[in-house]
């Protein structure tokens, strides 16, 4: 379950009044986690561990802080084995299992190895974790009520999208997928916003933003005039006519009197489908041919739009209420080559949020890197 899923209770149950964020059950869970972590933060020694003597410590290897390491892992619920260790100076199996649990909660590689990244997370002051929870709650409180039934949440620091069919969705019923968000550069960050998904476009053209054309592609094209053709791009004048990729065409691009677009196809930057959002920042969701990026733990690589790992699942979520769009037709549209724009019968509310703390129903608390630095200094 993800932080955005905790917001599912934004929606009213059938026949009931809609709920404000502070009435959500999982908001209360995060408040309870705040009380717990404030208590843990009163003992600063919990995060005081000896440095590593090597790059990493693996199961069965010695670590001078093994006994000290057990204290914070027990306090946070990662280590549940209450028995006395047989070899206190070693990284034994219970400690390794606890480290894996800790790593999962902090979006680290779950290898059970005590390396630099894991030690850095273990020695992060618990007062900082308190701050993450507080900032997440503050942003949560500012979210408006959803007027509809279904919704999408995108939590930027978690690199995750969640789709809810109703307020009563269980985790098994939720749509879940990895996303790639904007790079941590001021002009490229994915913005937080409350918006609507209004249209689905199969096999879209990619209208290259002017900033990308000017700063990235135009210099490349000048060095390699064949780039436009090789990348299946077109130079389009303001009247809609196509220009040649000659000096006059490049001058028009540089002057802003023409734009660059990429034709639909297997190498199109938007992939097979685009999901249109109502906003004035040209931010939308889309497929991508660069699927390898979804395997990375930290996924801030785009120019601000959000790439989705399972575009067909999102198509089915978006068009499920339209009787004209049976699953077979959706599959055919995705696998075909026709550019087609479909307007949703009802827009779907989309919350693009920023939460670096997450409380789960099983009592687990997860933390994510402050990828854009919006939580401020610790």
What report would you give on this structure?
With 378 residues, the chain is α+β, with helices and mostly antiparallel strands. It has three domains: 42-124, PGBD-like superfamily/PGBD (Muramoyl-pentapeptide Carboxypeptidase, domain 1); 149-204 and 268-367, L,D-transpeptidase catalytic domain-like, CATH 2.40.440; 207-262, no CATH class. Helices cover 28% and strands 21% of the residues. The chain contains ten helices and 17 strands. The strands form four sheets. The protein has an eight-stranded mixed barrel. A four-stranded antiparallel β-sheet has the order 7-10-8-9. It has a two-stranded antiparallel ribbon with strand order 1-2. A hairpin with a 5-residue loop joins strand 16 (357-359) and strand 17. Helix 1 (25-40) packs antiparallel against helix 5 (126-141) and helix 2 packs across helix 3. The longest helix is centred in the N-terminal third of the chain and has 16 residues, at 25-40. The chain starts with 24 loop residues before the first helix and ends in an 11-residue tail after the last strand. Mean pLDDT is 90; it is low at 1-17.
Brief summary:
By secondary structure, the protein is of the alpha+beta class.
